[in-house]
Amino acid sequence: MSQLNLKPGRERSVLRRHPWIFDGAVENLSGRARSGDTVEVVAADGRVLGRAAWSPSSRIRARVWSFDPAESIDDAFFKRRIARALSRRSDLPELAGQQGLRLIHAEADGLPGVICDCYGDTLVLALSSAGAEKWRDAIVGALIKATGCARIYERSDADLRSLEGLPARCGWLHGDEGGAPVVIEESGVRMAVDIVAGHKTGFYLDQRENRQICRQLARGRRVLNCFCYTGGFSLQALAGGAATVLSVDSSGPALSAAAHNLALNPELEAGRGQWRGADVFSELRTLAAAGERYDLIVLDPPKFAPSPAHAERAARAYKDINLYGFRLLAAGGILMTYSCSGGIGIELFQKIVAGAAQDAKIEARIVRRLSAAADHPVLLDFPEGEYLKGLVCQVG
Ligand code: SAH
User: Fold this and answer.
1) Site to substitute for ligand 1 among 249, 284, 370, most atoms within 8 A of C-beta
2) DSSP code of 199?
């Protein structure tokens, strides 16, 4: 096995069990490891710290598989890690019985570069690192055995892959590709999941709990759901007894999918839902100019800041939509506002939302802080894994 020798002092983060080794920490590589091969991580004083996957074309030059220098990285390793990820989820009652569930959340489950989501009897696997790519067959085999799922589809098409020198790859890995479309039920609401062309692996599983909070808050309220995608928040709001729900998204395919989802739940409609294909930034202005008011507004935009380098421009965009969100709230109204940008931390996000309320000349208080659901855990040793944050603000 090749050895990745660290520069003096650079063992500290590995000893704190941080799984990423950046190019600047690497003194040299002894041996001829190829992309994805397992290497031994060695401190400058010769101590062996663990085993990692070598990623020669990425700035994250290696991702640690195991901090136990004696643990072999082989088929059995992936079986163990996958079994542990599954049992972690079955140990949490709130996740029991969910038809849509993230089974493997990469670093947080000890499997950097591996995401696996389950939709009924279909798994969607997304591999994004050289190491995960190398062990693809072992991972697929272990998943089939551990879950008994009939079908596995690969969605390895995240932009991240190009940083690892890997081409995008999508397609069926196992099972009947001609089978039924994937439909899951979330708290009694049926949602079709487009695992082939939808965002991420097809659905925003991370917002599951937050959609439930929206459902609880929606009763009797006039709801505005911005960036509605396939209608997740909107349908839960309708199920919760909203008076009306206006849903806005600029994507035609997303709105068609939302219409299809509505048709899957005929009991929900009763003329309370309105769907609008529009740019949220301009639609918010149009609604404000028309004097419209809402009692519950959901703002769940796409990732405006994929990295801290984009934070400033993203902050302006978040400020803008939150400012209009506050302006459009009726007295006693509630704003559910999110950021899924890794480059914007919760403190900064709260400051942006506070600035928006000030500019709107509105007093609001945080009544709840939100994050991704429990099947998207954050490893204490790897806080970078945290990305989704939200605030529920009550006005008046
Ligand atoms: N809340 C959704 C997920 C939102 S994803 C859920 O829980 O399922 C973000 C959505 O924002 C996408 O559907 C995308 O089409 C839409 N979008 C991105 N930029 C937009 C813009 N400027 N105006 C309107 N919609 C936009």
Assistant:
1) 249
2) S
